[in-house]
Amino acid sequence: LNSAYQEFISAAASSLEAKENSGGQKTPATDAALENFKQRWELFRVACDQAEEFVESVKQRIGSECLVDEATGSVATKSGQPGPSGLPPISAVRLEQMSKAVRCLVIELQQGSGAGGGASHPNSSAPFDARFTEDTAQ
Q: Which residues does the annotated region (Disordered) include (predicted)?
């Protein structure tokens, strides 16, 4: 991002310099400098978008890891005791099953079928119990 920014600023300066050197007239040198400026602007925008996507993915990953820690009881002081949320921990496998089921339901709703209820999605690797019963093996 920094490199793309520096190249963009350099292209802006070169464009202004070329315009000043030509006395404000349109010349092949000013056209080339302006085209370079446009290219650097686009590259800078792409770099900004990539940085934003990276930050968003890290944010989601951290959030997911915190959720898994909370749900599986990794943050609980004693095994089997309710975590800070007051809920007993669940297994990581169970959490993944519930997460997949929720994603499938969201996709179904977005596609307009609305027929999900608590039913298992055909792509789900394990059946989903809508009552969210706890696994005994944690």
A: 112-138
